[in-house]
Amino acid sequence: MLNNLPIRKIIHVDMDAFYASVEQMDNPELIGKPLAVGGGGDRGVVSAASYEARKFGVRSAISGVKARRLCPDLIFVKPRFDRYKEISQKIRAIFLDYTDLVEPLSLDEAYLDVTENKKGNPSASLIAEEIRTRIFNEVGLTASAGISVNKFVAKIASDYNKPNGQKTVNPEEVLEFLEALDIRKFYGIGKVTAEKMYQKGIYTGHDLKSKSLEFLEQNFGKSGKYYYYIVRGIHNSEVKPNRIRKSLAAERTFSKNLSSEVFMLEKLKHISEEVSKRLNRSKVAGKTVTLKIKYSDFTLQTRSKTLPYFISDKSVVLETAKELLYQEKLSNSVRLLGISLSNLNTEKKTKKVEQKSVSVQLKINF
Fold this sequence. Notes:
With 366 residues, the chain is of the alpha+beta class. It has helices at 18-26, 51-54, 64-70, 81-96, 124-138, 151-158, 174-180, 191-199, 205-209, 213-220, 223-230, 261-282, 314-325; strands at residues 2-3, 10-15, 35-38, 46-49, 75-77, 102-106, 109-113, 143-148, 166-168, 247-258, 286-295, 300-311, 334-344, 357-358. Keywords: Cytoplasm, DNA damage, DNA repair, DNA replication, DNA-binding, DNA-directed DNA polymerase, Magnesium, Metal-binding, Mutator protein, Nucleotidyltransferase, Transferase.
């Protein structure tokens, strides 16, 4: 059962261990060795890990201390974002040879709509294979790809045969593919939600599909409707070349935990200046200010306030962040502070479209 919109041919391209692979490409001595991009010190965090390091359990977002404990021979290198952006632009240029409908998600992944493409090739699978070959030959890196009827299924599929592989899920295979998946593989279902689903007896896509819309909304709120439709292969989001930014943020991790709010205010001043600089550079403003606080025990807290008008000025951002800091007493010393602005003036209101499920008898060449 798929939706009644025209079936699209969507490719999700995901570079393999992108940051780490760039470092290994630029420094052949690192090839085949466990590598982490990020800080290896007491306060450092892993930004990316090579596949050699992942075998030991090293993953992005874990602390450098934990990463070293998992893999004593781990090599740390500092991130070079200018270099990653340079490589990303080369890869994006390859995408644009095939279609103008390219929606980047980050430097290392993007959606492509090749339903109608510049090569006149009816096979999205062959296009994905050709793109991956060109990335390897012209850039020197490997990429994985997922190919299917919508962005949701394509993204899941791109992780299926990683690294350096691809997976096509044809229209008639979508439901069977989703039903067999572990619920943790569903894009948009995080660790906490997966645990809650386990408690409700939901372990696979088949289990999720057996639950009514009423049950899912009752137990998972607004997300329940999303889960109800995606497990039925219904995801109508189009590939948007000019993806609208929904938030803008800056944060700082401190070399020593802060327990004095006086010192925190000084840090917030610098963070506010950086946020304001990024807002002005992007020519956007926002109404909702969110203060992110990570405590010394790694617990995370956010506090938000929505203003009646759009702001981008650093002084207003700072004053709002101060108000949020003093909103309630801090529960511990602080290792990280961050400020983000959302509810931006670039967001457009879109009408909610009623989604319906109908049988599709079309056999499309993927």
